Amino acid sequence: MNDPKAWSVRIDRKYRISFEPEEFLLSGNPNWSASILLLRFLDHDDLYRNPR
Predict the structure, then answer these.
(1) Count of structural domains within the chain
(2) Does residue 41 lie in a domain region?
(3) Residue 28 lies in a domain
(4) Which of 13, 28, 35, 36 lies 20 to 30 Å from 5, alpha-carbon distance?
């Protein structure tokens, strides 16, 4: 199941890399100066599959 808090970036037409910021600012926004946790590579099926 995908983590709704995770972010992802497209690396080509088929794949994305998902990651999660490790720190957040008081406003709730990610602290992009801090480290990120690499989660996994996603393809189209991972992004749009409905878990049962």
Answers:
(1) 1
(2) yes
(3) yes
(4) 13
CA pair distance 12, 3, nearest whole angstrom: 21
Whether residue 42 is contained in a domain is answered as yes
Smallest Cα–Cα separation from 18: which of 32, 35, 5?
5
Per-residue pLDDT of 9-45, as tens digits, reads 888 888 888 888 999 999 989 999 999 988 888 776 6
Residue pair 42/15 in contact by the 8 Å Cβ criterion: yes
Domain assignment present for residue 2? The answer is no
Q: What is the pTM of this model?
A: 0.61
